[in-house]
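Protocol step 4 of 6: structure prediction from sequence.
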Amino acid sequence: MTSLPEDAAPSAVFRTSPLAVLGAVAIAFCFTPVAFAAPFLWLLYLVPIAMAVWVLRVRTTVDGEALTVRRIIGGRRVPWSEISSLRLGSSKGSGHRISAMLSDGAELPLPAVGVRDLPQLAAVSGGRLPDPAGEA
């Protein structure tokens, strides 16, 4: 049994459940009768493949030093010193999204982070973010 070092900083990974890949497999299964009916309909399989890649790749990782956002292509690591606040919802009308507002005024969407994840995000931030469920 291995143990973590006592000085190891806590971290959290927010991601879509890998179980969602089963949905992509089900869609691929449903596409099978149609996929070979005509030339190039096999390209329908690109939809479930893209879904599976998205589920397995996109995530937000938080530790005591920085916040890391990983997208399908690329990613970004932002130290806590560059984050001024969090924003619930976005200007695009998606009310359940969380974004980090950066010091330069830019907005960084945090994939797979929801409102219910805010207490855990605050705990891992090392006090840099207030706990919304905490006592006043």
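Step 5 (inspection) to follow. Residues 11-124 form a domain with the PH-domain like fold (CATH 2.30.29.30).
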